[in-house]
Amino acid sequence: MSITVNIHQALRRITNNQATVEVAGSTVGECLTELVQRFPDIRSKLFDKKGKLLNYIDIYVNAESSYPEELAKPVKDGDKLSITLMLAGG
Amino acid sequence: MLTAQERERYDRQIMIQDFGEEGQEKLKKARVLIAGAGGLGSPAAIYLTAAGIGSIRIIDHDRVELSNLNRQILHWHEDRGKSKVESAREKLIRLNPDVKIEAIRDTLTEATIDHLVSDCNLIVDAMDNLPTRYLLNKTAIEKNIPFFHGAVYGFEGRAMTIVPGKSACLRCVYRGVIPEEKFPVIGVTPAVIACIQATEAVKYLVGIGELLINRLLVYEGLGMQFTELRVKKDPHCEHCGQATRKE
Number of folded domains in chain B? Predict the structure, then answer.
């Protein structure tokens, strides 16, 4: 089971400048857990202290928002996850 | 009815299939609100003025600072210290004296917004913070005014068109808040995004093309990629849904 996670530009220093990371998992949450295991510094950028996804982070699965299931959303082999951050600048 | 001078000025866009003089007349009758005279507001205002929008109301409470000038292209070196909307008005009326430019130096708040958006056909979101964007989004939905969203950070930008009653709104897509902070940006990023917002506004007013509704367009300048994220109207959205969303 291979899922491609697209890493937002602002987080790529944490992933050693990798734009994509291959992970395994059957839900969005499992995929992000593996991402955090490999790149521990990304945890605080994605989750609050209780392990809830920060409210300015959205995970898209194959270009569709995972909300409202979010971490529980199932994924399958070949899916593409995109970590997006809210933008407010103008 | 267009004047002979208007026919000549707008000749190249009148030539566009399905645009015609009828489309130009629609632009002439339009009243557009541009919320913000900064990085996004500057190019949006320039292109909408050049296109011949009848009336543009531009709102901003800030004054021009040196650090604005890498991206806020309506404001020039000699404008430092001047109110942004006055600086904008001076340039826009020189670009196209036929367009009525209403420059309002004010802050969009719960108390002022009803008055400030009154009589507008559409709103261009050129703000620099989420609370005001949410306020504009909510007001646009309540008043059934199309809302053209854009936002930038660094080399990245996003755009989406919100048509109340027909599409997902900004609050369907963004649920949280991020702290107001000084954000990095290169001037070409808001230029790209504001031109998309202006394109959408013109299309909406003329009634042609396919709008960027239920689609969040993501521009990534470093990789030079445009990506489309599909968004859905949230039935529990606190702005456009039928029930209040739980945070």
Answer: 1
Section B20-42 average pLDDT: 98
Partners of B197 on chain A (C-beta within 8 Å) are none
User: What CATH number does the domain containing B133 carry?
Assistant: 3.40.50.720
Chain A residues with CB under 8 Å of B185 CB are: 89
**pLDDT tens digits, A6-45:** 999 889 999 999 999 999 999 999 999 999 999 999 999 9
In this structure, which CATH number among 3.10.20.30, 3.40.50.2300, 3.40.1190.10, 3.10.410.10 belongs to the domain A3-85? Answer: 3.10.20.30
Q: What is the pLDDT of residues B112-167, one digit of tens each?
A: 999 999 999 999 999 999 999 999 999 999 999 999 999 999 999 999 999 999 99
In chain A, the residue whose alpha carbon lies closest to the alpha carbon of B182 is A89
Integer Cα distance of A21 and B158 in angstroms:
23
pLDDT of residue B29: 98
What number of C-beta contacts closer than 8 Å exist between A and B?
82
Task: Give the residue from B124, B134, B174 with the most A CB atoms within 10 Å of its CB, the best one to mutate.
Answer: B174
Domain ranges of chain A: 3-85
pLDDT at B212 over 90: yes
Which ipTM did the prediction report? 0.90
A64 vs B162: CA distance, rounded Å: 17
Pairing assessment for the beta strands B147-153 and B156-162 based on DSSP bridges:
antiparallel
